[in-house]
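Session log. Operator J.P. requested a structure for one protein chain; no other inputs attached. Running the standard single-chain path with token output.
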Amino acid sequence: MTIQDGTPITAPQTVNSELAKWLLHGLNDLIKDTQSRLESHRLSDVADNLKSFFWGDFCDWYLEMDKNPSRTDEDNQVIAFAFTTLIKMLHLYAPFVTEALWREFQQPKMLAVSEWPQPLPYQFKASHQRIEIVKESISQIRALREKANIGLELKIPATLYSKANASIFKEHQNLIIRLARLKELNINEKEPDAANELFGAYFHDTFASIDATFVDWKKEIQTLQKKFKSESGFVEKSRNKLDNPGFLSNAPEKVVTELREKVIDTEKTLKALKQQIRDLEELAS
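Structure written below.
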């Protein structure tokens, strides 16, 4: 993230970008929620919400969605305002780091004595809902790619079927293509004739599907079977350790606990792998 020198850190007077409206609406909700929870002494909840918004909505989503070499002054101001607002609230939990970041903006007062963020006069609920649908479409396509074991280095075609949300997807088509790593995105206002549930997903009056016909299913099955064998071997060895009285009496309690938890997690992975192999075997047959 790069913020140009001299960019105002105040709230922009006008906001044209729908992505910016989405961010500012969410930030407004966060400010109100933070104040309410602080007054109720729910400091742990405040920390969780701030962390989730900062790393999730701001870093993982907004900064990725807004990647644009020709960023406008409005875009820069939105980023500067959102970032400084967030570090003001995070100052409660990370005073030294946030104070150091604040100094980069060359403000006359220290962050510790700056004004606490107040709710904004914005009403961007519709834009917020629209971008949430765009986010969900990207997440669903990514999940389908993972289900088909298609790496992000390979760009594939995808289709979104939706009468209700077609205009949203058309407006943000390039964004979805970029973040979902697609070769092309087809937008269809009709319901699919035959929905492939294995590589399709329903959400918000929409059906998303990916084109996985080019995948070598037998090769993918072999890869998953190899992983299944490796994980099964780990579980077997670990179970033998945990059944050994000598190991239990000599190993630190923390080591034993961590191994038990790892076995439980790996068994969940094995269950998912088993189902994935079955699904792919149906396609390969």
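Operator note: Residues 129-210 form a domain with the hypothetical protein PF0899 fold fold (CATH 3.30.2320).
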